[in-house]
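User: Could you write out the 3D structure of this protein bound to NAP? I've included everything you need below.
Assistant: Certainly. Input first, then the structure.
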Amino acid sequence: MSSNPLRVGFVGTGIFAKDVHLPIIQSQPTKFQASAAFNRTKAKAEEFATLASIDNAHVFDSLDELLANEDVDLVDALLPVEYNLETITKAVKAGKPIIIEKPIAATLEQAREIVKLTDATPIPVVIAEQFLFFNAISKIREKLPQIGEIISFTYRSTGPFYTSNKYLATSWRRNPKHIGGFLSDGGVHQLALLTEILGLEFESISALTKQVREESGADDILFSTVKAAGGVIGTFTYGSAFGAVEKHGSLVIFGTKGSIIFDFSAGKPHSIKLQLGEVGDVPDDITIEEFEEANPPGVLSEFENLYEAVSKKDKSLVKANPRKNFHFLAIIDAALRSSKQGGTAIKVEQP
Ligand SMILES: NC(=O)c1ccc[n+]([C@@H]2O[C@H](COP(=O)([O-])OP(=O)(O)OC[C@H]3O[C@@H](n4cnc5c(N)ncnc54)[C@H](OP(=O)(O)O)[C@@H]3O)[C@@H](O)[C@H]2O)c1
């Protein structure tokens, strides 16, 4: 393994690059070093370079120039996702590993191209889906065998609309070119967490979606029933466009020998309640575990996984791979098509 930190070239120096990725990279100086930047509006890349102690000579005028620079070992791209396919294609051609933001792409066709392209190259390509790295996943997965066979689940992530949300002000979010707009922007996170906990893919979905807020630019709430692999059935509810209401997050997994109740609502420690018993009228055996996620949740672990895969030049180590992320967008795609057909069950497409 190389002892030098990986030199990171940032492509897109907007809110999330500045507020989250840069501080994480700066907190890991033995693994990463911010070394180059390109942004459509150059002044913002220059401002970012100052913040990141990037040499001015490494503020580039184009993606091509950044990719051609031999002082860049790894690309960190944070762009509106309609540019993901083009950016990944160029990075792979230049032989540079890349981490690029979720959702995987703006359309399922582009996502399919990305899977095809990344299947065919040994270069690590990571979709930045930090919800796959939540502590809750391993904690729940180690308890799952105790509740027997999974019968069903119910997942709910709902919250109020915040006018102060700075992400909301970005024009590409308000006029989305990516399917689902806010529903895929945030929904893929929820689906990553849910499917990774269950260890199951969705087969079909029957959904109704609706636009509540004009600012969302597209439907922004989703209520659905789901058929998952192995005959498991469930519900998936997502939306942050409501009036004043507590931000609620919960997953209940119902099994033949018990249940797991995961509460990830805002403003309190997260908790996992394990309730055992084949029937309800036996003495309860209940354990409750409370824990905190990292702040910001999942991102440090995501970058540790990125470092391992890139430094070992082994794409099989990438946890948030394009194939997995295709599935999250495919679920949103199926949900939107289902809603257009009045809630008819729609098969979730494969890459
Ligand atoms: N994982 C997460 O939890 C999370 C959270 C937030 C965001 N994200 C992702 O991060 C990415 C960036 O989001 P953000 O919130 O940081 O948005 P943002 O502040 O609007 O940043 C977008 C960046 O892309 C650039 N850009 C916009 N249109 C472009 C174009 N046509 N060609 C080239 N560059 C263009 C912008 O350049 P200008 O300066 O010229 O406008 C800006 O620097 C998105 O993919 C988003 O989904 C992920």
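The longest strand covers residues 150-160.
User: Perfect, thank you.
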